[in-house]
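Researcher: We're teaching a course module on how sequence relates to structure. For the next exercise, students receive a sequence and then see the predicted structure as tokens, so they can try to spot secondary structure elements on their own. Here is the exercise chain.
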Amino acid sequence: MTVAGAVRLQHGTQVWLDDEIHTVTGVTDDGVRLRSESGSWTVIGVGHLLADPTFHPCDGEADPADEGTAEHSTSTRKLWLDAAALFDKLSDKQLEELQRAQEHLLEMTTGFRSGNPEDTSSGEPKPEYAPDVSLAQRVRSKARELGYSEQQMWRRLRRWREEGPWGLVDRRSHRPSDPLAGVDPRLIDAIITQHYVTEEDDSTGSLNRLRRRVERRLVDVHGPGTVKMPAQKSFNRYVAALLPGRYTTGPATTRQSVANRPTGHYQPIAASRPGELVMIDTSWLDVRAYDPVEDVVYSADLTIAIDVCTRALLGWRLVPKGTKGVDAGLVIADAMMPEPMRPGWPEGLRHRMLRLPCEPLLAQDERFAAASARPVVFPEKIVIDHGKAFASQAVKNVCRRYGITIQDTRKYRPTDKPQVEAAFKTIRSQFSEHIAGYKGNHVVHRGRDVDAAARWTIEELEEFFAEYVVAVYQRRWHKGLVLPGFPEIKLSPNDAYRLAVHRCGYIAAPRDPNLFLELLPIHWCAITNRRIQKDYLHYSAPIMGTHNGSKSPYTQANGAWPIRYDPRDMTQVYFHDPYTGVWHTLRWTHALTGLEPFTDITLREVKQELRERGRDPQDQEAVLDALLDLQNRTDAAEASTARSRRARARDAERARAAARDKARTELADSAADAPAKEPHLRAVPPPPADDEEEITIDFDSLPSYEVWGGRPEKDDAT
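Model: And here is the predicted structure for the students to work with:
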């Protein structure tokens, strides 16, 4: 059955009806049986189907009678353009001509140029356009008046009635542009498939190579000579229309980065209170670090934690390239602890300058009295990627310890954590590129001899970066921070934190000085012969005699004791006595006084060297001799290599960071010299005893936030 000569209704034909595609499943003499995509069935008469305004054939449907022919029929894409947008591009002259054309048609059909009998001009209606004159006579008169033929006038009238004013516009200068009109859909599918399947991850090639590969794909799928390949220029035009902004023949890194973008629309990630969502990530610092002792230059990694609500940088760790799990875990701990002031910093950078409503209470905590103006939050949820350091046990320990939820992002999707990615870009533009030894974020941006310009150690870079965060980043206006209802007020991360504390309150940070030890990785082992064993190394201290041969109170560990170890310094481990609550340091039994700290990486290298020499890696004396020999060899200028010097600088830097973290703890080498247990400093004072004077807080005297904050002085931000 053929309807109106436009579409053949037979089994399998698809048509549009009620804004949904229906498939013909049966045809009778006076009716059609349809099945919609949603699964509903409809039986409708042919007359009712044709009269339905939502009925029209599916675009690009091929006639089944033409199947099997040598030449495949191509689909013609229909464009549904916005008439209002087309009118918006008309010139003033074209609009005047369109207005006159409508007036003529209104006069021809109604007798009045305005179309309204109550709004007439002198002499209207003219005798030839009077209401008692037939439409055919009026069309003939208007055609003579305008110089058109009678057929042209009827066509203009029909288009005007069907399309409105747009039917009177000259279409020659407003034809829609479709670069893929008439292109074989099989060729379109082959170009798109070839790009997404092969070209995205392959090395960059030319359009000539792409055309050859597409042709081979068409031959493999449809057979030789079935699909005709266009000329090279036409093919290039099709690729530009099908793959805009995909860098098919551009840089491979850019092409792969674009491919990682999400397919859906972007949705902002928002948080309503500090700590609700904290993003953590690691990236290389675009500055080369220099070690003057080893006279070697090496790369460094920067790990940061950023609060989404306030955009504040809560914690950071700058380490030699190769971030470990302990570094990522300690960044979370840094976010919950105040950042100490550095020597030489101005008083305007102290924590009290944040002007928090709870400042009188925080002043009783000595940590905040000596802290800088950097927000301290308690993370509720952290967002991490699939990096090995973030999936480590150290990160899981700190999150389990404080009830922090971990949320993983999708692999190779930096858009899942845009705030931290934008922070790295800001750090590069405001900090890294102004430091000697800046190498750029890509090899194409690198200078001729960057290593020769490097002069700062990692310790010095840490000091510079801490000053930049507290003095510049936290006080600088941030475009992502706005005050609801006052979009003209610009906020800095410190301003946003101050407002959030006023609105949501302050959550006290952890006060345990041994937080660093609790975040270290755990090694479960037994205490035998007054010592414990870790990686074939024996560690001991006087406290081991107290628990020698005993089982731990951890029932799930089958009597094993938890030992904390720092991968940055394997010369000592840490033991927590559950009966006294005191932490103890266990030294390696063969560690000499002059032995320098070494990392777990160095220990693995030493043991591998012993195996290659045919010696036992479990022999303590052999391990000690190999360590001393390695340190002596790398210390000798005539025998050192760039690799050995970098390894020595890496160990020294990690040992320095471990010693700095250890200095914040309360350790005892034995129970005898353990300090008396005293209550730790609290951010909120405990309730007073009966014989103590109650603490009275005058809430009227608490400082309030100034709504119209001034911009930081230029000297303070540089």
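Model: If you want an answer key for the exercise: The CA atoms of residues 53 and 461 lie 72 Å apart. The chain has five domains: 2-64, 92-173, 185-259, 278-504, 523-662.
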